[in-house]
Amino acid sequence: EIVLTQSPATLSLSPGEGATLSCRASRSVSSYLAWYQQKPGQAPRLLIYDASNRATGIPARFSGSGSGTDFTLTISSLEPEDFAVYFCQQRITWPLTFGGGTKVEIK
Amino acid sequence: EVQLLESGGGFIQPGGSLRLSCAASGFTFSNYAMTWVRQAPGKGLEWVSATGGSGFSTYYADSVKGRFTISRDNSKNTLYLQMSSLRADDTAVYYCATTLTTRIGWYWYFDLWGRGTLVTVSS
C-alpha cells in the first residue's frame, strides 16, 4: 500500500496570503496524484488531477506540481472560501489511498 | 440535475449487516466507474471499494475485503455496498462518487460526490 503523508497538519494563514501544501508518497506514484478540498459538513471537491491539471471550474489560484514522491498544492492568494481541509490521493495502484489531510485555517 | 444520493445508513450493532444504496441521476450511469469512500467522525478520507461501469471489475480496501460487496444495477442507475460483519471501526459517513472523465479519458479520481450517509456501529 502506498502511504501518502501530508504536511503540515495545520496551516494558519490570513486571507490574501499564499499557501503551500505538501504530499509525500512512500514510493513513486509518477504524476498520478489528485488534490481535494473539503469544507465542514460537505463532500470533498476535486481540485487538481494528475498532479497539475485543474478540474473543471477550479479557480486559477489553485495549482499543483510535482512527480514521483513529492507533490505540492499551491494557493496563490487565499480567499475566505479557501479555508478548509485538503487531501491528496494516488491512483497508480490498488488500494487507492488518501493522505491524512492539511487543514488551512484562518490566522 | 446531475447528482448522487446515498441512503441506507443507520445505527447497527457489531456483527450486523447493512446495505447502502447510491441513486444516480442526470447522467449516463453505466458509463462511469463508481466508488465508495468513507470518513470516520473527525478523521480523513478512506477509500473503501470501486467497480467498473459494467460491474464486472471490483476492488476493495484490505480493511473491508471479505466483509463488504460492491455491486451496481445499471437498469436502476444505482450503486450498492453490502456490508456485513460490521465493526465499530466501520463507523463513518459513506460517500459514493463517480470517477473523473475528461475529453482524453477517465481516471480513478473522484469527481461527482453524494452528500453521504452515516453508518454507526455500536452496541
How would you describe this protein?
Chain A contains no helices and eleven strands. In chain A, β9 and β10 form a beta hairpin. Chain A is an all-beta fold and 107 residues long. The relative contact order of chain A is 0.34. The mean pLDDT of chain A is 97. In chain A, strands 2, 4, 5, 6, 9, 10 and 11 form a seven-stranded mixed β-sheet that branches. With 123 residues, chain B is mainly β. In chain B, 0% of the residues lie in helices and 54% in strands. Chain B is built from no helices and eleven strands. In chain B, the strands form two sheets. In chain B, strands 2, 4, 5, 6, 9, 10 and 11 form a seven-stranded mixed β-sheet that branches. Chain B has a four-stranded antiparallel β-sheet with strand order 1-3-8-7, with no helix packed on it. The radius of gyration of chain B is 14 Å and the shape is globular. Chain B starts with a strand and ends with a strand. The model of chain B has no long low-confidence stretch (mean pLDDT 96). Chain A binds chain B through residues 1, 34, 36, 38, 43-46, 49-50, 55, 87, 89, 91, 94-101, and chain B through 35, 37, 44-47, 50, 59-62, 95, 97, 100, 107-111, 113-116.
Question: How would you summarize what this structure contains?
Answer:
The complex is a heterodimer of chains A (107) and B (123). Chain A is mainly beta and 107 residues long.
Set down the secondary structure blueprint:
The complex is a heterodimer of chains A (107) and B (123).
Chain A lengths: L3 E4 L2 E4 L5 E7 L7 E6 L6 E5 L3 E2 L7 E6 L2 E6 L9 E6 L6 E2 L3 E5 L1
Parallel strand pairs in A: 2-11
Antiparallel strand pairs in A: 1-3, 3-8, 4-5, 4-9, 5-6, 7-8, 9-10, 9-11
Chain B lengths: L2 E5 L2 E3 L5 E8 L8 E6 L5 E7 L6 E3 L7 E6 L4 E6 L8 E10 L4 E8 L3 E5 L2
Parallel strand pairs in B: 2-11
Antiparallel strand pairs in B: 1-3, 3-8, 4-5, 4-9, 5-6, 7-8, 9-10, 9-11
